[in-house]
Amino acid sequence: MTATSQAPLEAVDRRGSGGADLLFRLAATGAALTILAMLATLLLVLLIAALPSIKRFGPGFLISSEWRPNSLPVLKLDAQGNAIIDPQTGMSVVDHYRPPAFGAGASLFGTAATSALALVLAVPLSMGSALFLARIAPLWLFAPVSFLIEFLAAIPSIAYGLWGMFVLGPWMGGPARWVRLFWSFFIPAGIESRIGALAIHVPALRWICTTTIGGKTVLVPPTGRDIFVAGIILGIMIIPIITAISRDVLRAVPRAQMEGTIALGATWWQSCREMLFYSRSALFGAILLGLARAAGETMAVLMVMGNTAAVAKSPFMAGTTLSATLAGEFPEAATNDLQRGALMEVALILLVMSLIFNIVARYLVVGKSARTAAAH
Amino acid sequence: MAKPRDKRARLASYLMYGVCIACAAIIVGTLVLIVGYLLVIGLHSLNWSFFVNLPRSDPPGMRNSIEGSIILVFLASIAGIPVGMLAGVYLSEYEVDSLLATPVRFVCDVLAGVPSIVVGILGYELLVVPAGTYSGWAGAMALAFIMIPIVSRTTEEMLRLVPHSYREASIALGATKARTIVNVVVPSATGSLVTGAMLAVARVAGETAPLLFTAVGSDFVVHNPGKPFPSLTLRIYELSNQASPAARAQAWSGILVLIALILLVNLGVRYFTRQRRLN
User: Fold this and answer.
1) pLDDT digits 0-9 by tens, B61-98
2) Which residues span the domain enclosing A76?
3) Distance from the B224 Cα atom to the nearest Cα atom in chain A, whole angstroms
4) Is A240 in contact with A152 (CB distance < 8 Å)?
5) Is the distance from CB of B222 to CB of B228 less than 8 angstroms?
6) Which residues in chain A are contacts of B182 at CB distance < 8 A?
7) Which residues of A touch B261 (CB under 8 A)?
8) Do residues A272 and A339 share a domain?
9) Contact residues for A269 (Cβ-Cβ < 8 A; gap 6+)
10) CATH 1.10.3720.10 applies to domain B48-278
11) What is the chain B residue with the closest CA to A123?
12) How do the residues of chain A divide into helix, strand and coil, expressed in percent and rounded to 5?
């Protein structure tokens, strides 16, 4: 009796909350669509804002390293190459004006150089540490080291930037310090003054370590803000990310696979190599995620890179990256439409680059490790 | 008797074993040194006036920036967490492998990797240019933009861990889908959902780049998000460009506050996840 009397009530109840049910479903679907709309907006807004620059400079924008927000006067020269002075005004005669021009070449170069340095530093150390965590560390060590690495991945980039600016940069001290550090193994103390000369006589070192100032070849003066410092800071920043993902990837290798190698008589290192080989694509994905972070990093690079729109031949010279150019130049571009367009194109390049890195990394890592989303 | 080849392999193995330990020691050592340095120098420069004074008072402090950061992150959370959680619910509960869910999941991952400076520029184009002024709203929305994909992915992952039998039991009792989600699925994952949200909050609290062209910073106490808005990270960046030792000490103190916040959140997360495992 109770059961039959409750049935209609239940039906009424269900009809009553049917509206709420639909509403909740719509809200959830709307939120999911919002995410799609976010990416579409991002791409569309940047594309539209970059159009003036894309139309004006075309594909050459990617190569050119010119960054001239205002037109620049070019002086009229006489046969000897001296500026002609107007006798009436006493001023140099302007031949013509070079129009404003923009190119992302220097920024792309700086991004590539710093990211490459960061990877060279971070990949071996991260892989070694991931192997340590997956194969060596006992549980009492695994937990705190893992915690530390995850905590460090969460430290904001401005903290690393400040440290790089005030501690690492001044400590690095340009090529002279590194030449000294390296050669002091071979050369007794006391003839340090000759070490600069030594660097100048080894061709590869000379090319990297010297610059021409006023017609004289000298060691690149230390500024504490150069590509080398930026690369090292980025390397330190991406080590926790690559290590954390690689650790999870390595721990996901089936135990039987490893037991098989040991049973076949492999040494510890041989079975580790098998492990690395087994998960190579996911490890590559982990490295790509680190690369994506390094290439998109703004604050740390902005603070230690020196921000000069030029392709530097030496890692001890200042440079700029895509994101540092954006952060450094944007405040000045409010009144200059062409410059703003160029910066928007730089942002678009940065966005597309990070999309490519992340898409490839996602295909490589997802399915083998569930931590990709947490990595950022 | 071992063949020379075996001997070499064994030697290489010992060598690489040592190299792996050395790698871990180097990175743990370096990172501990950096964080230790930041903590020590931060504690050294920290004083009470840092929390109660304004940038232009003497001694200078960051009260307005701390307040500004709290308000910005609060506004961003109000906008970002519900949208992110709903999207996560959609991915986990409504559509697991549909035509819409797969691209949404994909876009979430991709958005989580977008450089934050690009998000700041989007905020500038969409909110600052039309309004004609830098504003806290633009900054908060840029932060929310960063939060949404993170929250959505963690929500999905956490809800997936809820046993399917819970949902079946709820449906069998006559609950609708929405009721099942609100009364059964979400409550049984509350701890981890809060954890995920806290991680997203900690992440955006440390962001600087998206605020550079949106909130822009201010030396005054601002509570109206329609105006240029102060933020802790922006203030630290501003101070890093000043030469005086006092400015530098302030910047270190700011970093200490940020790191302490992130350490607290991470420890909290660890505590919660351990509790869940024990239960």
Assistant:
1) 888 999 999 999 999 999 999 999 999 999 988 876 67
2) 72-101
3) 23
4) yes
5) yes
6) 24
7) none
8) yes
9) B9, B12, B13, B15, B16, B17
10) yes
11) B23
12) 70, 10, 25
A143 contact B CB<8A: no
Contact list, B154 vs chain A (CB under 8 Å): 373-374
> Do A89 and A230 have their domain in common?
no
Examine residue A36 and state whether it is found in any structural domain, yes or no. Answer: no
Of the candidates B114, B191, B204, the one whose C-alpha atom is nearest the C-alpha of residue B155 is B191
Chain B closest-CA separation from residue A95 CA (Å): 38
Per-residue pLDDT of chain A (376 residues; tens, 9 = 90+): 344 444 444 444 454 456 888 889 899 999 999 999 999 999 999 999 998 888 888 888 888 888 887 778 887 777 777 777 777 777 777 777 888 888 888 899 999 999 999 999 999 999 999 999 998 888 899 988 988 898 888 899 999 999 999 888 888 766 666 666 665 555 544 444 455 555 556 666 667 776 777 766 666 777 778 888 899 999 999 999 999 999 999 998 888 888 888 898 888 898 999 899 988 888 998 999 999 999 999 999 998 887 877 787 778 888 889 999 888 888 777 777 888 888 999 999 999 999 999 888 888 876 544 444 444 3
* Domain regions of chain B by residue span: 48-278
Nearest to B115 among A128, A350, A372 (CB): A350
Chain A segment 100-119 residues within 8 A of B by beta carbon are none
Is there a contact between A36 and A327 (Cβ–Cβ < 8 Å)? no
| Contact yes or no for A32 and B87 at CB 8 A | yes
Q: Which of A147, A148, A158, A273 to mutate to test the interface with B (most CBs of B within 10 A)?
A: A158
User: Which pairing describes strands A216-219 and A210-213: parallel, antiparallel, or unpaired?
Assistant: antiparallel
Q: Which of B15, B19, B117, B128 to mutate to test the interface with A (most CBs of A within 10 A)?
A: B117
Find the helix packing angle between B4-45 and B245-278, rounded to 10°: 120
Find residue A75's DSSP bridge partners: A94
CATH of the domain at A133: 1.10.3720.10
What ipTM was assigned to the predicted interfaces of this complex? 0.89
State whether B9 and A239 contact (CB < 8 Å). Answer: no
> Are residues A324 and A259 both part of a single domain?
yes
Token pair recorded at residue A111: 């991004």
Under an 8 A CB cutoff, do A269 and B209 touch? no
